[in-house]
Amino acid sequence: MVQITKKYKNTILLVIGLMLIFGGVRLTKQQTKSDRQPNIVKIGLIAPFTGEFADKGKELKDGSLFALHHINKNSKYKYELIAEDNRFLARDTITVYNKLVHQDKVSAIISMWSTTGLAVAPLAQKDKIVHFAVDNSSKIADLDYSHIISAMPDTHTSLSVSKMKKDGVNNIAVVIQNDTWGNNMLNSLSKEAKKENIKISSILRFNLNQRDFRIPINKMMEDKPQMIVLVIDPPALEIFTKQLRELGYKIPLTSFETFGYTQYKDLYEGDWYTDAKDPTDDMVKDFRHKYNKDFTATSAHAYNAILILSKAIDKLDNITADNIEESLKTVKSIEGATGRLEIPDSKIIAEPTIFKVIKDGQTSLLKE
After folding, report:
1. 108: phi > 0 → left, psi -120 to 50 → alpha, else beta; which?
2. Which domains does the chain have, with CATH numbers?
3. Which of 126, 254, 354, 356 is the most exposed place for a label (fewest CB within 10 A)?
4. Torsion, CA 344, CA 67, CA 50, CA 123, rounded to 10
5. 97 in Cβ contact with 46 (< 8 Å)
6. 31 or 337: which leads in pLDDT
């Protein structure tokens, strides 16, 4: 027995050694594979998915997911979207913000329009969370960690006023909803109109719950404006227009983006307006193939915001808000949803603006 043990001793040791070697190789391969799996970066989205602006919120979500579909093919990290419905209410915004930041541990947040962006911005500053608002209110970008991305007021109003001047319009009326967006657009329009000696003969401000405009319409028309600028969101947009037409006024109308929002485009047949630049043909085709939907300007804004964030984060090994902020300053341009977008200022990312017209109940480019 002693001799047999000695005879096989070396063999047994050899087998054990080989098992350790091959097991180690297998373990090393598993570790290498694991090490190569990208870390997950969570991005939160706060937008209305129910209520009267649900369509726009869904467009924002679609644009964000479309961006991740492209980005995750080649990124250093794996990006995930966590979308929360705020019903476009301030109290819900705060609730879902706290969930995204403190429970889901997102690295950045995308918000929709000033109502949400202005609520998120001070919270993001306190918690050191990078925040992109799809909106053009500069007050949001005044706070640390917050950025805005949209077609800016001055790009809309300067383009609009240039056409008014060309068309011989020198007396306009303005109807605005009394909120941050409405007042921002009015301030910009007043500045641009003054440069071209275009008179704003009357301004109708109204609260968002107002539904009867007949008396102020008649008062406004006493000043004989040649055009009315509607800085109004649906449904007030359509209600005002129907009442204006019912009173017999056939005056031309224009807007900044909102004619593209309405489901009742026949109300604005032949009217031109300014809008953010359309997505490229390739993007439109790819988006329609994936979602069977139109790729809108709202979706394009979200796409570009996510793309810019990912470009900045991919440069980092240590993802913190301060590091993301510094890295964002180095992203000077992107090939985005609307083509090449130059970014001289990471806090205020201005998208190009174009003319559109309602023709046969559809939006189309206005060819001058």
Report:
1. beta
2. 40-150+280-352 (3.40.50.2300), 153-276 (3.40.50.2300)
3. 126
4. -50
5. yes
6. 337
**Using alpha carbons only, how large is the chain's radius of gyration in Å?**
27
Question: In this structure, are residues 113 and 178 in contact, taking their beta carbons and an 8 Å threshold?
Answer: no
Q: How far is it, in rounded angstroms, from Cα 174 to Cα 187?
A: 11
pLDDT tens digits, 196-239: 999 999 999 998 889 999 999 999 999 999 999 999 998 999 99
Rounded-to-integer distance, Cα 152 and Cα 135, Å: 8
Strand partners, 43: 81, 108
Burial class (CB in 10 A: 0-12, 13-18, 19+), 280: middle
The rounded distance, in Å, linking the Cα atoms of 34 and 218 is 71
Q: What is the pLDDT of residue 10?
A: 55
Residues 60 and 109: their CA atoms lie apart, in Å, by 13
